[in-house]
Specification:
By secondary structure, the chain is mainly beta. About 0% of the residues lie in helices and about 50% in strands. Strands 1, 3, 6, 7, 9, 10 and 12 form a 7-stranded antiparallel β-sheet that branches. Strand 16 and strand 17 (about 235-240) form a beta hairpin. The chain is elongated, with a radius of gyration of 39 Å.
């Protein structure tokens, strides 16, 4: 889609220099003998040039920001001439012509041609210098050609803007006509290329071919030289090359940048037209690092960041990895530079000195060359510190996790805490649950738990509850995928559409075996995929032996456990042993029950109490 706002802006600027149908030079002057050049940097050029608005639409060539420019007409094709002052040219001689051109868009083709004739009128422009071209580029590029009048006299050169209707603009600068050359002057060199080295060296390999013909099309017997320029400065002269010789040169540049190279051939009759090419010399920005992993080191709080060495730049050119270094960022927003100048494919460093409690760390890796830096590429989240013990319970009381949770927004959705204020009661009565919120089909998000030690569980099993949304005939086809992460590798343990669990509205229990990970330390990974409803909820997540639930009692005795004011009340379990855990699995106390109704003092909070085969989550107020 074209952005007409930009075009309106251009039209307003150009309208200030719209001229009459024919604008003639203000005063007659003697014809100019080339060489001749006009930069159009000064608006005074309008005093010497003839401007013809052939289609009489009021929009034509005129000065604009150090150039001469013509804008578009939404309804009519461009038909406008910019004609030079009179030039005194010799018959039988050859003159090199060049002009720099830029268009207002890189997408919409503009058209121009360059002609010459004996009068400063469009009708007299009968000889071609540059045939009609379609171009689209938002930087200036040089276009060149030659003119060779058959007889001496006064001539004019005309640039014809002839774009289709509803394009954007053409800008011109640096018009030049070279001095007269004999027809036996060399033709231009050919096959000029500049190949940058992507191994870190600021060098370009230049190659070109010396001409074999003169400007009249006859074979050259010899050449005096071929001159090679960079940005119009002479950098090398090939002396007395044979016609048709393959010429090479290694150019060392001062900095990574885009350079313009040109070459001309010289013999006793004069200089050839120039051949020109542009190239970026040096190294470009590197491609993004891949294969990033983050693991714990051998010391507490130490981490190892690894990656696949970068071997290409952003344009897929080969890079020597020896010329690529890396930076590591951390801190809030991963914006603090921690280390730079790193070589190789890994780096080991101390992430934290405090490993008394579990916490997540994450870092961003950046590749760097002399040409720039890559994008910031994030490592996985890594939990450091002691793993949570089992039984492990996360109930999201009051919408807040009691254990560490790592969040990834894969595709616009987000996991976050919810309370009963949403209109849905938590499954276990603690005013909180966790949920993924999306806005569009295929939105997804992932969260991971901290490390959980399954040691001591004979039949490790994951249980949790998810909420089935029922709305008329629409079934809850949102998907939830659960994986276990062990030794850095994630393996799916459960995947389902919510409606697969049942037809009734409300919380439904989900169970998945973790026996494949018995005695291991794992993390859980939950990934949501929204296919219909904007919400996916979970609550009362637990890892314990098979058959034990955080709220239901699979009891083989008559014990009851309840929370009270500053205490837990246990009944019917005299002489049994009670174990009390924090919500994140840390043992608080273990005691032998000495009375039919036993009151165990505790500070307010949420606990897991276990007596024999009875396990209960309780809230102490």
């Amino acid at each position: 889609m074209k952005i007409h706002r930009m075009k309106i802006s251009t039209l307003l600027l150009c309208a200030t220099f719209s001229l009459a149908t024919v604008a003639q030079p203000q005063a007659a002057t003697e014809p100019i003998t080339p060489p001749y050049a006009e930069s159009f940097a000064n608006d005074a050029f309008v005093n010497d040039y003839t401007i013809v608005d052939v289609n009489n639409d009021g929009v034509t060539w005129g000065p604009y920001l150090g150039s001469v420019q013509i804008s578009y007409n939404s309804n009519e094709a461009m038909n406008d001439w910019l004609i030079t002052p009179a030039l005194a040219l010799e018959g039988g001689k050859i003159y090199n012509f060049s002009i720099e051109v830029m268009t207002g868009s890189g997408s919409y083709n503009e058209s121009f041609e360059v002609m010459y004739g004996k009068e400063n009128t469009p009708e007299s422009m009968t000889e071609t210098i540059i045939e009609k071209m379609q171009v689209a580029h938002t930087v200036y590029k040089s276009y060149s050609g030659t003119l060779s009048p058959s007889e001496s006299g006064t001539y004019y050169i005309g640039i014809h803007g002839c774009s289709d209707a509803d394009m954007l603009s053409i800008s011109l600068k640096n018009l030049s006509v070279g001095e007269a050359k004999g027809a036996s002057a060399p033709a231009a060199p050919s096959d000029l290329t500049a190949t940058t080295r992507t191994n870190g060296e600021l060098k370009a390999d230049i190659a070109l071919t010396a001409p074999t013909l003169d400007l009249n099309g006859d074979a050259l017997e010899s050449l005096e030289s071929v001159r090679l320029m960079r940005n119009d400065s002479l950098i090398h002269t090939f002396d007395s090359p044979a016609p048709g010789a393959e010429l090479t040169y290694v150019d060392e540049v001062p900095e990574c940048s885009r350079y313009t190279y040109s070459a001309i051939a010289v013999n006793g009759s004069g200089e050839s037209p120039a051949i020109e090419t542009s190239a970026f010399v040096g190294v470009l920005e590197p491609s993004n690092p891949t294969g990033i992993s983050l693991t714990e080191g051998s010391k507490p709080g130490e981490v190892i960041l690894k990656w696949t060495p970068v071997t290409t730049d952003i344009r897929n050119n080969t890079l020597d990895p020896a010329f690529v270094t890396y930076r590591i960022y951390g801190g809030d927003g991963l914006a603090t530079l921690l280390f730079d100048g790193i070589t190789g494919d890994s780096y080991t460093f101390q992430a934290t000195d405090d490993v008394s409690t579990q916490s997540f760390v994450q870092y961003a890796l950046v590749a760097e060359t002399r040409g720039g830096i890559s994008d910031f590429m994030n490592s996985p989240l890594l939990p450091l510190g002691p793993a949570y013990a089992t039984p492990f319970v996360e109930s999201f009381a009051n919408g807040t996790p009691a254990t560490i949770i790592g969040l990834y927004s894969d595709n616009l959705a987000t996991w976050k805490g919810f309370t009963n204020e949403t209109g849905i009661e938590s499954q276990d009565g603690d005013n909180g649950f966790f949920g993924s919120e999306g806005s569009y089909l295929q939105d997804s998000a992932t969260f991971i738990t901290g490390k959980i030690d399954l040691s001591g569980l004979e039949t490790p099993t994951l249980t949790f509850y998810t909420y089935n949304i029922v709305d008329g005939k629409d079934r809850d086809i949102n998907t939830l995928r659960v994986s276990a992460i062990a030794n850095g590798t994630a393996q799916e343990v459960k995947s389902f559409q919510i409606c697969d669990l049942g037809d009734q509205e409300g919380w439904l229990k989900v169970e998945a075996s973790l026996e494949a990970y018995k005695s291991q330390t794992i993390q859980l990974e939950f990934t949501s995929l929204h296919a219909l409803y904007p919400y996916i909820f979970i609550d009362n997540l637990r890892i314990d032996n098979y058959g034990v639930s955080a709220i239901e009692t699979a009891a083989s005795n008559s014990a009851s456990i309840a929370g009270g004011q500053g205490e837990i009340i246990i009944a019917g379990a005299t002489h049994e042993r009670v174990e009390v855990f924090t919500i994140d699995g840390h043992l608080v106390t273990q005691q032998t029950i000495a009375a039919p109704e036993y009151r165990l003092p505790l500070t307010p909070g949420i606990y897991i109490a276990r007596v024999g085969q009875t396990t209960q989550k309780v809230i102490v107020k």
